[in-house]
Amino acid sequence: MLAERMLSAVVAGCTKQYLKLSPTSEVRMPAPKPGQPYMLYMHVPFCERLCPYCSFNRFPMREDRARRYFQNMRAEMLMLRELGYDFQSVYIGGGTPTILIDELCETIDLARDTFPGIQEVSSETNPNHLIPSYLEKLRGRVQRLSVGVQSFDDGLLRQMDRFEKYGSGDEIFERLGEASPYFVSMNADMIFNFPAQTEDILIRDIERVIASGASQTTFYPLMASPSVQKQMARTVGRVDYSREKRFYETICELLTGALPGCDLGTGAHGERGLFEFGSAWTFNRRGALGSDGAFIAGDDAPMIDEYVVDFEEYPAIGSGGITYLGDTLYVNTFSVVDYNDAVERGAMSMMGSTRFSLHDRMRYRFMMQLFGLRLDKRAFKRDFGLPVELGLPAEMAFMRLNGAFATDNADELTLTARGRYLIVVMMRQFFIGVNNLRDQAREALTGEERELIFGSGECRLGSGECRR
Predict the structure, then answer these.
(1) DSSP string, 336-392
(2) pLDDT tens digit string along 10-31?
(3) Roughly what angle, to the nearest 10 degrees, separates helices 417-442 and 358-371?
(4) Phi/psi class of residue 196: alpha, beta or left (left: φ > 0; alpha: ψ in -120 to 50)?
(5) What is the pTM of this model?
(6) What is the pLDDT of residues 168-211, one digit of tens each?
(7) Terminus-to-terminus CA distance in the chain, angstroms?
(8) Are 166 and 147 within 8 A, CB to CB?
(9) Which of 156, 259, 321, 351 could join 316 via S-S bond, C-beta 3.0 to 4.6 A?
């Protein structure tokens, strides 16, 4: 546990230093680099009701406001075309992207017409939207649907204020099974290490994910930012990080067959689980079928929620979106009112930015590629001008000392089971830092919008797992 505590403290300190938002007067994003692959992120910030611990930009649904917003998000998308962008992939997050299904479909259709390079679309949704009328409209438009399940346990769903909104664990389980055939990839988003979650509850959740037919699952560790830790302690309990590693090992063992200390995704006698690692906390079902009827494997595995693994640079449109291009991270305004005003006067919606130093960029590459289970040493040297051992000597020494690398040669770094968990710790702390960045942007809200978020006292911002 000492290594994990040290790592948490170091990453928290680093993110506090370089994830500081400064005002920006830029009205257009930088143009694309020739030959650079890009993904487009779109953010839809409307929900039927607000999860009290969600840090993503979201507002209570109001149809007139949402329709105007979708119209402006499509206009902002066309600004990217004017800058010369094309995209290989689209990810639509929220909020609840499916909140107005006709607007979402129109937006996806325009994206495909505007950017011929798009090969796949991934969207988030909530379990209550897994109904035939929505699924039929999404079929063919969305290749990967990510469903915010969080848990199948009714007690936990009530604590998370999700039971009344999205149904019981049994109802969600049935909807997943019915929806899965509509998509190339169906992802079940889950939480582990929730304060009231026992190991038995976790095991039952894993068993239900396996039985649900979902082709992919993501188990996020609870990521409570400092701004809500006290509130969470008063309502649902204090987060206990001492059991996080044990819970993570249980997930890996039951899904992939990998016992603690095993690096190859197989059990003690070589047996393989039904899933394999897609990232340090994403798992793909073995033998899942692609749209062409062939088995998905290796480089053709479905897209994961942490799209930064496959696309290091990505512009984001929509209120609350976060862009990373070159050495700069931009944050779009969290005000829907200001967002609409900016787009309608022909500007994009960035309200702040932070610039990464060369060292920060190397750390970012190191963490994100290892989260994706492999760091390309040759590409690292090509892009940064020096080998990873010289660019990040402290990070490499720490990981080597803790037995993190299964492969460590001139070409690549890959991870042991121990290394995967260390990367989970890094990513957890990094996303807490991103949540703090969102807190900075949200503090700029005024008037009615500030009252909607802060006035009732229901949400003082929170963790990264409540994505929907």
Answers:
(1) HHHHHHHHHTT---EEEEEE--HHHHHHHHHHHHHHTTEEEHHHHHHHHSS-HHHHS
(2) 888 888 888 889 999 999 999 9
(3) 120
(4) alpha
(5) 0.89
(6) 999 999 999 999 999 999 999 999 998 999 999 999 999 999 99
(7) 32
(8) no
(9) 321
